[in-house]
């Protein structure tokens, strides 16, 4: 298969395992799968693992770029994420009032000789990463048969 153009991701059945998928980008290729408990072969991260990793990597990269640009002595960032579903009525800041909603919990550990103001600013910047903005705004997904 030829590599897709930058900004395009192609996902195809890998041909091994019931749910195993080959993910191809402009410069990388890897497998995604479901765990054995869900009938998969556990040959790669799950779709939700990939979604969370997109948010986590974007958060960490955004913090690194900001800290470097502003001369903030950030030495290491660790982002831990979890996805679950909760009842809408239990969500304080959600527009949806009934049913279940997806919730992503993100914990950010900032290492370095940082003062309280720098830590607070970095946490504000975390919410400005492009993937966070995408996930927290309305998303239109258009599907076309080819």
TrEMBL record:
KW Glycoprotein (keyword) present: no
GO molecular function: peroxidase activity
Keywords from the UniProt entry: Oxidoreductase, Peroxidase
Stated name of the protein: OsmC family protein
EC number: 1.11.1.-
Enzyme class: oxidoreductase
Signal peptide: none
Pfam family, one: OsmC
Superkingdom assignment: Bacteria
Xref: InterPro entries: KH_dom-like_a/b, OsmC/Ohr_fam, OsmC/Ohrsf
């Amino acid at each position: 298969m030829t590599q897709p153009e930058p900004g395009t991701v192609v996902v195809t059945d890998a041909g091994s395992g019931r749910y195993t998928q080959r993910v191809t980008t402009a410069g990388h290729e890897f497998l995604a799968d479901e765990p054995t408990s869900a009938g998969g072969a556990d040959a790669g991260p799950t779709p939700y693992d990939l979604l969370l990793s997109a948010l986590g990597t974007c958060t960490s990269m955004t913090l690194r770029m900001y800290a470097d640009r502003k001369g903030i002595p950030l030495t290491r960032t660790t982002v831990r994420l979890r996805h679950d579903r909760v009842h809408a009525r239990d969500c304080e800041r959600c527009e949806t009032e009934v049913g279940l909603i997806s919730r992503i919990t993100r914990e950010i550990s900032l290492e370095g000789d940082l003062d309280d103001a720098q830590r607070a600013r970095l946490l504000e910047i975390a919410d400005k990463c492009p993937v966070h903005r995408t996930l927290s705004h309305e998303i239109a997904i258009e599907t076309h048969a080819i």
